[in-house]
Design brief:
This is Phosphoribosylamine--glycine ligase. By secondary structure, this protein is α+β, with helices and mostly antiparallel strands. It is built from twelve helices and 23 strands. Bound molecules: adenosine monophosphate (AMP) and glycine. The site of glycine has 7 residues, from loops.
Length: 421
């Protein structure tokens, strides 16, 4: 098979790495890819829907795998389905559960899926009156896609007012801020759940934990994610059963009933609260950097799984995971998630002797015979181990050998679970 992966992040490099191990695969193309993907696949320098469709009309591809949410929101999957090209990912209508938080909240309310209490506003003055009646912290979200930056946890009424002004008046997120959601703050531990879905059936991955804030101790602004561990030792089978029965299955059934069957990865962010697991948000794609850890311990041929999701045969598909733990530590450019510089030489990538370390590239680019930084999140260093601790020791050892000007990474990935085996 010839496979095209859409995207340029660590997630896409990890998917390519795993897809490459499939006996079914002849060639892998990545649009646009990065310096890492160019070592195992052919990078194609195209990004827009029109460019991708134009390229696919000229090149025969047996399977397209869509990474980023923007393409799902823009209906790339629908367009490829019309052309008869097998594609892994949800249609625009099914992906609305990610690209419209208003839709997702309304859907959860109507279907009885546990989530934070909320109100939606398209009028600034009404939103400002409402916050006077609430206690703090209070969560304020722009409804549309905002590159993971559309959520503010306001600790006071002044902060809440300023946030509403920024979103609804100054329009810092553009049209994504036409509506805001104001919701109850949930206390608890946050985990990432992924499920393969074929429109009707679903198979859950083991639980993952991301680390969203830029600095150690969960300080500083939110990022796309600074590191992950899989599985999460403190999550019980009982909690996973509740998540499957109260969140994943009702969501898939209701989307099917509403005429928008979901094929792809359903990825809810879940808060484990005192009153049970609650959905923070839904994503309609593989997580980044969750995927980097997941691909290290997925045992089954991923191409087989992706095809069974597309063909609606997931029920017959067996999925196994190595009995190991995995971690991914993200190295980012200085300044990220705010402004950062690109073009710094990355050193040390060839010095790593440990075969169990796999480095997935994100914002990197080849430049003559060097590799240079080309984004906020630059590399994801992954390792596996008998347990999380073992994988973390190896990953942090490898990190000491890697360098670029301004490199920053969290030193405490997985630390909240250090007391667990
Ligand atoms: P989201 O983009 O909706 O995932 O929100 C980004 C981050 O904000 C989440 O990963 C949580 O850490 C935090 N967050 C969002 N909603 C809530 C909530 N209702 N209560 C507590 N934290 C939240
Ligand atoms: N790591 C979180 C996400 O992919 O949205």
């Amino acid at each position: 098979m010839d496979i095209l992966i859409i995207g340029s992040g660590g997630r896409e490099h990890a998917l390519a790495w795993k897809i490459q191990q499939s006996s079914k695969v002849k060639s892998i193309f990545i649009a646009p890819g990065n310096a890492g993907t160019s070592q195992i696949a052919k990078n194609i320098d195209i990004t827009t829907t029109e460019e991708i469709i134009g390229w696919l009309k000229k090149n025969h591809i047996d399977l397209v795998v869509v990474g980023p949410d923007e393409h799902l929101a823009n209906g790339l999957v629908d367009k490829l389905e019309i052309l008869g090209i097998p594609v892994f990912g949800p249609t625009k209508m099914a992906a609305e559960i990610e690209w419209s938080k208003t839709f997702a909240k309304q859907f959860m309310k109507e279907e009885g899926i546990p989530t934070a209490m909320y109100e939606v506003f398209d009028d600034l003055e009404k939103a400002k009156s409402y916050i006077k009646t609430r206690s703090f912290p209070l969560v304020i979200k722009a409804s549309g896609l905002a590159l993971g930056k559309g959520v503010t946890i306001a600790n006071s009424i002044n902060e809440a007012r300023e946030t509403l002004d920024e979103i609804m008046l100054t329009k810092v997120f553009g049209k994504a801020g036409d509506e805001v959601i104001i919701e109850e703050y949930l206390y608890g531990k946050e985990i990432s759940i992924h499920a393969f879905c074929d429109g009707i059936n679903t198979i859950l991955f083991p639980p993952a934990q991301d680390h969203k804030r830029i600095f150690d101790g969960d300080k500083g602004p939110n990022t796309g994610g600074m590191g992950t561990i899989v599985p999460v030792p403190y999550v019980t089978q009982g909690q996973m059963k509740i998540i499957k029965e109260k969140v994943i299955i009702p969501t898939i059934s209701a989307l099917k009933r509403r005429g928008r069957p979901f094929k792809g990865i359903l990825f809810p962010g879940i808060m484990l609260t005192k009153s049970g697991p609650k959905v923070i948000e839904f994503n309609a794609r593989f997580g980044d950097p969750e995927t980097q850890s997941y691909m290290r311990i997925l045992e089954t041929d991923i191409v087989e799984i992706l095809i069974s999701c597309i063909n609606g045969n997931l029920k017959e598909q067996k999925i196994t995971w190595l009995p190991r733990s995995a971690c991914c530590i993200v190295c980012a450019s200085s300044g990220y998630p705010k402004e950062y510089q690109k073009g710094k030489t990355i050193g040390g990538l060839d010095n790593i002797q440990n075969d169990d370390i796999v480095i997935f590239h994100a914002g990197t680019k080849p430049d003559k015979n060097r590799i240079i930084t080309n984004g906020g999140r630059v590399l994801g260093v992954t390792a596996t181990g008998e347990n999380i601790q073992e994988s973390l020791v190896d990953a942090y050892k490898a990190l000491e050998l890697i360098s670029f000007e301004g490199i920053q990474y969290r030193r405490d990935i997985g630390q909240t679970i250090t007391d667990c085996p």
